[in-house]
């Protein structure tokens, strides 16, 4: 059985460092046998989440439906002032639309978390925030998460990384999400 892993992340800047990091995580998921769906950059430009407004723009409906079908999730956020970017946080607020589902929120799904920031403090606090959000949404953060210091690590457009051990850590997160999803579906 093929599982689906949805990657959410990046910034408004196309091919940002966090978006490139997400692609490496998704490579790990693919190598473990997953089908992947990437939701990044322009896909994340959504109106502020308002639970009292039932109409959703097309990109919000696609995001929610992708998460509804997901067996696993990868979240990658740039660290903005020590926490998750508003763009990623607002996208995660749309998970509220899954509250009445048979599998509400991210219930029973492994979620890999990665934070990328210009320094250790912001990357670590952002990773901690992502893991807390995943707990609140009933997801299972993978044992391995990654705090990437963008001052020391760079990702290129071809999927390369200047620090091989960081690239392997990111791929491991993708594999962990996939392996958990496969074990839950058996």
**Amino- and carboxy-terminal Cα gap:** 8 Å
Radius of gyration: 15 Å
Q: Main β-sheet: number of strands, strand sense, barrel status?
A: 7 strands, mixed
What pattern of helices and strands is seen along the backbone? EHEHEEHEHEEH
Helix content: 25-40%
- What is the number of beta strands? 7
What overall geometry do the principal axes of the alpha carbons give?
A: globular
Poorly predicted residue ranges:
none
| Main structural class | alpha/beta
- Let me know the average pLDDT: 95
Tally of individual helices: 5
Beta-sheet strand percentage?
A: 15-25%
Task: Describe the protein's architecture and organization.
The chain has 186 residues and is of the alpha/beta class. The radius of gyration is 15 Å and the shape is globular. It is built from 5 helices and 7 strands; from the N terminus they run E-H-E-H-E-E-H-E-H-E-E-H. The model has no long low-confidence stretch (mean pLDDT 95). Helix 1 packs across helix 5. The protein starts with a strand and ends with a helix. Strands 1, 2, 3, 4, 5, 6 and 7 form a 7-stranded mixed beta sheet that branches. A hairpin with a 2-residue loop joins strand 3 and strand 4. It comes from Saccharothrix hoggarensis. It is an enzyme of class 1 (oxidoreductase). This is NADPH-dependent FMN reductase. Keywords: Oxidoreductase.
């Amino acid at each position: 059985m093929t599982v689906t892993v949805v990657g959410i992340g990046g910034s408004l800047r196309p091919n940002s460092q966090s978006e490139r990091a997400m692609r490496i995580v998704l490579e790990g998921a693919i190598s473990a046998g997953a089908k992947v769906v990437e939701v990044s950059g322009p896909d994340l430009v959504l109106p502020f989440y308002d639970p009292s407004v039932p109409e959703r723009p097309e990109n919000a409906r696609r995001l929610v439906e992708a998460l509804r079908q997901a067996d696993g999730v990868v979240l990658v956020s740039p660290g903005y002032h020590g926490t998750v970017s508003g763009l990623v946080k607002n996208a995660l607020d749309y998970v509220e639309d899954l509250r009445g589902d048979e599998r509400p929120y991210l219930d029973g799904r492994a979620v890999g978390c990665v934070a990328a920031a210009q320094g250790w403090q912001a990357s670590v606090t952002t990773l901690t925030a992502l893991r807390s959000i995943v707990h609140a949404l009933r997801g299972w953060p993978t044992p391995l998460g990654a705090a990437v210091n963008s001052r020391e690590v760079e990702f290129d457009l071809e999927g390369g990384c200047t620090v091989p051990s960081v690239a392997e850590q990111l791929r491991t997160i993708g594999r962990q999400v996939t392996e958990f999803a496969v074990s839950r579906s058996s």
